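Training component of the fellowship. As part of building independent skills, the fellow (R.M.) carried out the full modelling exercise for a liganded target. The chosen ligand was zinc ion. The inputs are recorded below so that the supervisory panel can assess the work.
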Amino acid sequence: MAYRFFQPISVDYGGQKRRGYRLDCGECGAGESIPFAPLKRNYGDDDGKTHTMIRRKFEGRGWVVGESPRQDRCPRCAAPKPITNANLDKPKLALALQENFKVTTTATQPATPAPAPQPRDMGIDDALLISTKLHEVYIDASKGYGEGWTDAKVASALNVPRAWVRDIREKQYGKGAAGNDDIDAAVAEARSLLSDCKVARDAAEQTIALVTKKIDALTATLTGLRERAGKIERAVHTVEQALR
Ligand SMILES: [Zn+2]
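Fellow's submitted model of the complex:
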């Protein structure tokens, strides 16, 4: 079985030189030396027992021992890191944003400023700024923003166009992700529709009232006409009787 081979070195141990081993972190370069003298009978063995013991010793101290020295990680670098603004790998994130979101880097932007204050393109710094802010105030795709936050609020807090915020949010959390602005807009539209409905209903009620009034008036007229017709009819009848 393949095993990681550790080269013995001389380690200072309380003023004395001891046989030991050293690992250097492949990420941050921090190193640690530990004195370790395996049992004599294990010297020169070729079954990797000694090396397995050395590996366990380092692992016991929090190291992640890789297959090659380049993959070794010190206890600090090996610890899982929650994403916070402090440890956000900005260069890496910037690169990912650049590759995936097709944003322009500030370095490639023309040095000469535009003559008129035109809406500029979103730069990598802008994307990074927005992305970092979203990490802070956006919960997840289903819950959307934390209380009180919206695309518009993030935009005004960072002094960037709202469309940029929506763009980064959608790219980071998905197109269907809830942006409270969208909900606000839907609610506003529903309110507006409701208001239109109320206006239409009021208009209909007024029309009905008018029509009702007219019908009443017509009914009254009709009654009068009927009475007159009745009188004329009776008069005609009387005249006919007289002429016979
Ligand atoms: Zn490290």
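The panel noted the following from the submitted structure. The chain has three domains: 9-78, 90-109+120-178, 180-244. Residues 180-244 form one domain.
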